[in-house]
């Protein structure tokens, strides 16, 4: 049993304090021995056989690289992992050697280069996955970095002024729902100046071209956000389009600052690009597709727009000439996923990250003038032959009420019948999209399991109506979508309906527990990673800065009717219905889903006669970021899956 310490994490994270110090004595007589190995605490997990570790080795050593920013020397900065955690690296030329720049035990966010030619860049870093991000400025001339944010705060929205003299950002404390907007010269932290105390989850989005205004965005829900212009001299905040309840994505000023280009779902089912005249408030449609527009950037001269759309999960990159209004050819890429797009400071190159079935993710650039597409990195794939890694099949199945649910299916070779792993995404306003997954490929090629990845109702990417079909009192309808998927599996001759496991993290972890609650007689087991086990305790104990955001989706537990409903559908109150084998995985420092959610479902299932496996990482948060922890987790998951699916380890 690890010793309980009154650190910031344990004080803020009721789960660790309650789970490790308060709950354990009450169940000590019936609980398995809790074993600690380094920072990993576990129950019921057998010793990992060497052959399991060996079979996983190649798949565990897959890496990816994502483009962060352009360097003043013509090279790029990327984030990738060559040790325990992701760090910042520099690449001088396409396919050149990467040079590591930051060397921390903790993961770092990407580099954002200071636009003054100095070569300095800022980045963020948290501790143990607590998501209390701090801002740092790195100087390549001295090789040193300094922190410019206040400790004991969570910071986000770091944005450079056009001349690079200042950076703006937002901060909040653990229980504070409102964010404070700051500005400072990051090389002189004592110049830090408070601009305004904003309402809700408000953060800087972009500076106006003349540096006199700051665009702020407040996130309320996936269906509602607000934009404000903050006058830096007067401190006055003016809401853009105050009479509209819409959602905004990416936002960019026009070159002269007279217009604002925004990704928005205003008067539309899917997100498109609008131009808002900042003087008159009038808007015009710039780009529209029958799918959501996602990333967007504008060249420094204001003449060219680059944007991506999410076409049923597959990214498409488009270019638009803002002078002529004509679309221009974009690069031809394998069907996959594209991250954010950004123009170089001279506007000659467009940078982005791209992954697909045969590549875990790499940095690319495209030159619109010449049409030249350059790949800058080729990430290691552990020596695997990725040519056999095929893109999944897109299917649709009919749910209990006639709604069509999309899902991606990875099938192994052979006639089957194959065991099935149903992988459920988190969010819930997220979307499973085809790309590279060493986890899925291991299950398919080494375990011979089919992998089915549904986008149940409530998923993003399919329009506003679809994303709202699971809100508040409709929550369990998304669980019934899994029941309908089990019906679909029953009808597939190459799939074994008697060997199906559900697997998911965060909200997907709740879906695992709820699926076991409803369908334990049809499931071989479930793996719940940082999942919600009781919506009321989750809302009461999640970090204060995000509590109101989650109430929009799940309901306000302070309302008696809503509270009664949330209690009735929560797995921890229905543990006697969870009879299939269960593996619970949790990070102790998780600010989103507190560790108490894992401890209480562990206690409840055990009290109902179950005997779950349990893994707690004391140096992780909402998911596992450290490579050694990830390796052990994958090994333990593999052992659990082979056991419940009746496979050879």
From TrEMBL:
<dbReference type="Pfam" id="PF00326">
    <property type="entry name" value="Peptidase_S9"/>
</dbReference>
<dbReference type="Pfam" id="PF07676">
    <property type="entry name" value="PD40"/>
</dbReference>
<keyword id="KW-0645">Protease</keyword>
<dbReference type="InterPro" id="IPR001375">
    <property type="entry name" value="Peptidase_S9_cat"/>
</dbReference>
<dbReference type="InterPro" id="IPR015943">
    <property type="entry name" value="WD40/YVTN_repeat-like_dom_sf"/>
</dbReference>
<keyword id="KW-0720">Serine protease</keyword>
<protein>
    <submittedName>
        <fullName>S9 family peptidase</fullName>
    </submittedName>
</protein>
<dbReference type="GO" id="GO:0006508">
    <property type="term" value="P:proteolysis"/>
</dbReference>
<dbReference type="InterPro" id="IPR011659">
    <property type="entry name" value="WD40"/>
</dbReference>
<dbReference type="InterPro" id="IPR029058">
    <property type="entry name" value="AB_hydrolase_fold"/>
</dbReference>
<feature type="domain" description="Peptidase S9 prolyl oligopeptidase catalytic">
    <location>
        <begin position="436"/>
        <end position="646"/>
    </location>
</feature>
<dbReference type="InterPro" id="IPR002470">
    <property type="entry name" value="Peptidase_S9A"/>
</dbReference>
<keyword id="KW-0732">Signal</keyword>
<dbReference type="InterPro" id="IPR011042">
    <property type="entry name" value="6-blade_b-propeller_TolB-like"/>
</dbReference>
<feature type="signal peptide">
    <location>
        <begin position="1"/>
        <end position="28"/>
    </location>
</feature>
<dbReference type="GO" id="GO:0004252">
    <property type="term" value="F:serine-type endopeptidase activity"/>
</dbReference>
<keyword id="KW-0378">Hydrolase</keyword>
């Amino acid at each position: 049993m690890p010793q309980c310490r009154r650190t910031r994490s344990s004080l803020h994270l009721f789960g660790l304090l309650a789970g490790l110090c308060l709950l354990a004595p009450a169940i000590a007589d019936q609980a398995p021995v809790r074993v600690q190995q380094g920072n990993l605490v576990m129950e019921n997990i057998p010793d990992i056989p060497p052959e399991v570790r060996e079979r996983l080795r190649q798949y565990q050593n897959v890496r990816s690289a994502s483009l962060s920013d352009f360097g003043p020397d013509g090279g790029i900065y990327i984030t990738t992992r060559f040790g325990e955690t992701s760090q910042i690296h520099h690449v001088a030329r396409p396919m050149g050697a990467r040079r590591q720049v930051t060397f921390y035990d903790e993961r770092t966010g990407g580099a954002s280069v200071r636009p003054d030619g100095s070569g300095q860049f800022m980045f963020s870093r948290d501790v143990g996955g607590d998501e209390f991000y701090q801002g740092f400025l790195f100087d390549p001339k001295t090789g040193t970095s300094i922190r410019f944010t206040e400790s004991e705060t969570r910071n986000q929205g770091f944005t450079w002024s056009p001349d690079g003299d200042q950076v703006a950002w937002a901060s909040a404390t653990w229980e504070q729902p409102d964010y404070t907007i700051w500005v400072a010269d990051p090389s002189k932290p004592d110049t830090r100046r408070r601009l305004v105390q904003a309402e809700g989850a408000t953060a800087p989005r972009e500076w106006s071209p003349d540096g006199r205004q700051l665009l702020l965005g407040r996130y309320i829900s996936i269906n509602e956000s607000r934009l404000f212009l903050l006058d830096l001299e007067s401190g006055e905040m003016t809401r853009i389009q105050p009479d509209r309840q819409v959602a905004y994505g990416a936002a960019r000023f026009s070159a002269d600052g007279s217009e604002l280009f925004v990704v928005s779902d205003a008067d539309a089912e899917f997100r498109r690009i609008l131009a808002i005249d900042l003087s008159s408030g009038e808007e015009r449609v710039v780009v529209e597709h029958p799918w959501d527009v996602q990333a967007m950037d504008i060249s420094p001269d204001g003449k060219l727009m680059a944007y991506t759309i999410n076409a049923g999960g597959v990214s498409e990159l488009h270019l638009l000439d803002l002078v002529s209004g004509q679309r221009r050819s974009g690069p031809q890429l394998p069907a996959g996923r594209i991250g954010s797009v950004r123009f170089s400071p001279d506007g000659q190159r467009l940078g982005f990250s791209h992954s697909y079935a045969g590549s875990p993710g790499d940095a690319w650039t495209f030159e619109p003038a010449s049409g030249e597409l350059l790949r800058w990195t080729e990430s290691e794939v552990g020596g695997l032959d990725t040519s056999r890694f095929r893109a999944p099949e897109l299917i649709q199945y009919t749910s209990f009420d006639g709604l069509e649910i999309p899902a991606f299916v990875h099938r192994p070779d052979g006639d089957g019948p194959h065991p099935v792993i149903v992988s459920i995404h988190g969010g819930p306003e997220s979307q499973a999209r085809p790309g590279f997954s060493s986890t899925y490929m291991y299950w398919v090629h080494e375990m011979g399991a089919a992998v089915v990845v549904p986008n149940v109702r409530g998923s993003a990417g399919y329009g506003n109506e679809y994303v709202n079909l699971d809100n508040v009192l409709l929550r369990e309808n998304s669980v019934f979508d899994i029941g309908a998927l089990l019906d679909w599996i029953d009808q597939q001759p190459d799939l074994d309906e008697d060997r199906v496991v559900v697997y998911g993290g965060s909200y997907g972890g709740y879906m695992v527990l709820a699926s076991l609650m409803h369908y334990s007689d049809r499931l071989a087991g479930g793996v719940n990673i940082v999942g919600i086990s009781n919506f009321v305790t989750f809302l009461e104990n999640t970090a204060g800065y995000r509590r109101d955001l989650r109430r929009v989706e799940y309901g306000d537990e302070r309302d008696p009717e809503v509270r009664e409903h949330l209690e009735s559908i929560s797995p921890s109150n229905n543990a006697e219905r969870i009879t299939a084998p269960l593996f619970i995985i949790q990070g102790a420092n998780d600010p989103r889903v507190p560790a108490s959610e894992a401890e209480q479902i562990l206690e409840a299932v055990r009290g109902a006669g179950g005997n779950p496996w349990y893994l707690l990482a004391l140096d992780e948060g909402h998911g596992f970021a450290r490579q050694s922890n990830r390796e052990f987790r994958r090994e333990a998951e593999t052992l659990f899956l082979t056991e419940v699916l009746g496979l050879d380890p």
